[in-house]
Amino acid sequence: MSETSPKLRAELEGIPTYKPGKPAAAGGPVAYKLSSNENPYPPLPSVLERVTTAACDLNRYPDMACAELMDELSERFGVPHSHLATGTGSVGIAQQLVQATSGPGDEVLYAWRSFEAYPIVTQISGARSVQVPLTPGDVHDLDAMADAITDRTRLIFVCNPNNPTGTVVRRAELERFLDRVPGDVLVVLDEAYREFNRDTEVPDGVELYRERPNVCVLRTFSKAYGLAGLRVGFAIAHEPVAAALRKTAVPFGVSQLAQTAAVASLRAEDELLGRVGSLVCERTRVVDGLRGHGWTVPETQANFVWLRLGERTVAFAQACEEHGVVVRPFPGEGVRVTIGETEANDIFLKVAEAFHKER
């Protein structure tokens, strides 16, 4: 038997591993998972009923064209079908966008720290990541990002609200940035947390896309709509980009259960967004509580908060786990904490208060 191994692409060497939020330990002291930005509410009864019925056809392939979902999205956002593409969550579409635009010798530009999948999908394609540090206030430095554009830049991610800091970029600065981006560079507005935003100065990316052929908007059903376990997201972009996404999609990638649940969720949007409103109120309570204990917390428009802890990051995460909640640490930088059930948030606030007093 030969001792040689199949040759694999050199670009795969050193790809950072995506680290999912740590789950609550079964049978252990941890009771609440605040590490994955999931919606703590279960599916609406109307959504669950449709999914349960659809499960009877699991022996059949899903509709590869996602026709019913495309109809709903087209009507909901006022865009033609040819400007839509679906995928396995917004992260799946992000990977398709990089594959469609960037290869060896090309550059993908984004703020850092931002969504940890960006460097992974970039390196998989063979392109080079250009990471522009956030401002001291943990916000995108759009002027520095514009300065970093070169003739090798093919794609720019702008995560708005930003994961993991929850901060946003507002209309004037975003439009000024877009004006500086060459028309042949694709700008991806990753709006996975759009529904949690309450800042009226933050633009709706769909409105920006309408007048800018090089803007693509990503949305997902994983967060506000509570379908994280079904993996369905969508992109809105002008026809050449949307067509490229459909070409690079994995055949039958979006399951029929996911399509059915997404359609049912759009039809129950008022009820679902009422739940989002409750989470936003809880977010305000958590932020106020942290600041009242002396923490510096960036203004967040997502369903999580960010605490910059530096070298104390891991110790804080361990303290939370010991008291029954799991948070998402980024060692050496900080922790991201999802807004969850009231009981979970109360535990987190108590740990944070005690930890801050020990400083």
Which percent bin holds the helix content? 25-40%
Query: Reading side by side through the largest sheet, how are the strands ordered?
Result: 2-8-7-6-5-3-4
Low-confidence stretches: none
Q: Which value, in Å, is the CA radius of gyration?
A: 21 Å
Give the terminus-to-terminus CA distance.
60 Å
Number of helices: 12
Number of DSSP-assigned strands: 12
Biggest sheet features: 7 strands, mixed
Structural class: alpha/beta
Elements, N to C (H/E)? EHHEHEHEHEHEHEEHHHEHEEEH
Mean of all residue-level pLDDT scores: 94
Shape: globular
State which percent range the strand residues make up: 15-25%
What does this structure look like?
The protein is of the alpha/beta class. It contains 12 helices and 12 strands.
Secondary structure elements and pairings:
Blueprint: E1 32-33, H1 45-54, H2 67-77, E2 84-87, H3 89-101, E3 107-112, H4 117-125, E4 128-133, H5 142-147, E5 153-159, H6 171-180, E6 186-190, H7 205-211, E7 215-220, E8 233-236, H8 239-248, H9 256-267, H10 269-292, E9 304-308, H11 313-322, E10 325-326, E11 328-330, E12 334-338, H12 342-357
Parallel strand pairs: 1-10, 3-4, 3-5, 5-6, 6-7
Antiparallel strand pairs: 2-8, 7-8, 9-12, 11-12
How would you briefly describe this protein structure?
Helix content is 38%, strand content 15%.
Describe the structure using short key phrases.
single chain, 359 residues, alpha/beta, seven-stranded mixed sheet, three-stranded antiparallel sheet, 12 helices, globular
